[in-house]
Amino acid sequence: RSAQDGDDLAFASLMRQYRRFAEATAQRILRTEEAAADAVQEAMYKVYRALPKFQDGNFRSWLLRIVKNTCYDHLRQQSRRQTVSLEELTEFDDAETSMGVRTADEQENPETVIVQQETMQTLLAAISDLPYGHRSVVMLVDIHGMDYMEAANYLDVPMGTIKSRLSRARAALRDRLTEVGLVPGQA
Q: Residue 128 domain-assigned?
């Protein structure tokens, strides 16, 4: 209560109590310590600013929602980026292979590497064009490797919703990639 009334020491104590929980949640979503630390720092700032407006309720759930939303904002920003480094391509290897995109191995020529980078950029642009609900599921399941249940828990939706959104998102991606000639059209 005193943290809510503007006591900075009480707020710092409260954040110490929940910091590991917030960091673990962020790392499961973002998959890197650096990105998770950035997201947690941003989330803590949001909590600090919004704390006076917090109504009596479950603080941990409220904090979790802020951390998750901040992480999803980071994922959205990441999916909107138009450039992809070779390191990022390698990190996406498993997801790309499942979507029919392969990364270049070290022995391939530079032209092949450039074509594959452009393919990845087109794929990421197509993902960023999806509605938020579909995009977040694709990012969590196909890019970050979460299973359906884990994604459902993070988004606080039923597993059937995850499956439905993922199916629709993949169909939309297939259609978009067919339009630009990256996936052969159906005869």
A: yes
